Amino acid sequence: MPKDTLTGSRIRERRVLRGMKQAELAREAGISASYLNLIEHNRRRIGGKLLLDIAQILEVEPSALTEGAGAALVAALREAASDMPQSGAELDRIDEFAGRLPGWAQLLADSRLRVTQLERSVETLTDRMTHDPQLAMSLHEMLSTVTAIRSAASILAEPGEIDPEWQGRFHRNIYEDSARLAETSRGLVTYLEADDAQATETGAPQEELDSALEAAGHHVPELEGGADVGRALERLAGRLSRSARALIRDWLDGYAEDATALPLAVMRDALDRVNEPDPMALSQVLAAPVDRVMRRLAAMPAEVLAEPVGLAICDASGVLSYRKPLPDFPMPRFGSGCPLWPLYRALNRPMVLLDGALRPAGRGAAEFRAEALAMPVGAPRANADPLYRAHMLVRPLSPRAEEPDTAEEVGVTCRVCPRKACGARREPSIFG
What we know:
Layout: H1 7-17, H2 22-29, H3 33-40, H4 48-57, H5 62-66, H6 71-83, H7 94-100, H8 102-131, H9 133-157, H10 164-192, H11 196-202, H12 205-216, H13 221-224, H14 229-237, H15 242-261, H16 264-274, H17 279-286, H18 290-298, E1 310-314, E2 320-324, H19 342-348, E3 354-360, E4 368-377, E5 387-396, E6 408-410
Parallel strand pairs: 3-6
Antiparallel strand pairs: 1-2, 1-5, 3-4, 4-5
Helix pairs in contact: 2-3, 6-8, 7-8, 9-10, 12-15, 14-15, 16-17, 17-18
Protein name: Helix-turn-helix domain-containing protein
Keywords: DNA-binding, Transcription, Transcription regulation
Pfam family, one: ScfRs
């Protein structure tokens, strides 16, 4: 229902809030109660002096009766409905619902936002619990210690006499194992409650690399100006572990090589000519490999590329070696992503650009264009199969490029994917 046909509903809502009877408002406005009844049921249009008089009687601004619910609230309600299409929500009456019951509408929109935030937190924590080496080691230590305590206690609980010397040994073992269990538990609690910086210091090298690149915005100004890699390394590496420093050094070497081949000014001019971050079109304009163009697009600052793009890179094992997620297109911090991503299909069809539309499951109506390409790594070798590395560039889908119903629904990883029927699922979802 269009917004301008809901003015009557808002008049009725304001009248009821003030405790006025319909006849009372009609009398003060100089119209009949039957005519006001038609207006309040949106069967008669209202405007001009009558609208101004009624707004003055109700002590509200005329715009409060004519403008209706905010666009942001209506958009949030549409996203909530698109998350659960099976609910049968009346999309054509969203404006009416938001206009008549703005408080409940805002509550629903806020609840949907809160659920989305909690889902992302669960994804992050589950990913961490599954792959975090520090957490796995601590839990293994705790389980081993508990098993040792239980074994010693079961021997002491058995009927019959135990030699005093052996009894003392078992008591001492239980005491020492209990102290070790308490120490491990305290360390685990400290680790889980640590802030992001502390967690990074004790995390896996790949996680340290991801955190450092995220903090830098995946852009290194020093290398755009031709500075030495060592200077950028000192700024980005900071207090990273030795293994993480080695990973970020390799990434910076590749960044410097890409920046030298495709300088920032050249990328800016090419983007002005193409008008969108299309890696294939830019590759033709720049006469550069598509995978290099993808990496450069992911490194562009906001002043060059206003709307950022996402990028995932994996080797032949499927494990992500580089990830730049988008707010509505998350990527797992560890391991591999959704098997339905074109990133993995590209490994089966090397040197062929795969292009398609994706819609993240359970994340509203946001759709993305994904372009994936697998290219050989290194120079050809005699009698040796090449090793391939796949890139997948993700960018918001242009409405004119694809029809909305052509987008394929994909997840992040199986464990946190809400899709129930999926032939590619490899483990149950924690969302049931």
